[in-house]
């Protein structure tokens, strides 16, 4: 069990280190860095490499932003098998809609409960 936590920490930390290097060394803006990590997760899933990473690292691979790219491609490919080209578009939204909805709801609740500083 401790090994699971260790590898989740290491893999999640490495993904964060990559993001920080993109910001510091390559002088990318935060928006470019986030888009790059989402695309990297999408590409890794397209080649079938992200699911084994999730199996190995658990939350270390599902929590970072790269998992969003993985979810987009994974949903699109699953629905494309069932519904063809239309499934590519609907699959992306079907798989990611609950996470996006939760972020909106919790962000709204946070804005209601806490007073912004500034």
TrEMBL record:
The chain crosses the membrane at residues 6-26, 33-50, 95-114. It comes from the Bacteria. Keywords: Membrane, Transmembrane, Transmembrane helix. This is Stage V sporulation protein AE. It comes from Bacillus songklensis.
């Amino acid at each position: 069990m401790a090994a699971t936590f260790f590898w989740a920490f290491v893999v999640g930390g490495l993904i964060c280190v990559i993001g920080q290097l993109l910001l510091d060394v390559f002088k990318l803006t935060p928006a470019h860095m986030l888009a790059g990590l989402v695309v990297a997760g999408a590409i890794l899933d397209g080649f079938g490499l992200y699911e084994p990473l999730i199996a190995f690292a658990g939350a270390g691979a599902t929590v970072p932003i790269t998992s969003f790219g993985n979810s987009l491609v994974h949903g699109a490919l699953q629905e494309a098998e069932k519904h063809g080209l239309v499934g590519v578009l609907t699959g992306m939204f079907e798989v990611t809609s609950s996470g996006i909805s939760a972020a909106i709801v919790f962000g709204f609740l946070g804005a209601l409960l806490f007073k912004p500083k500034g």
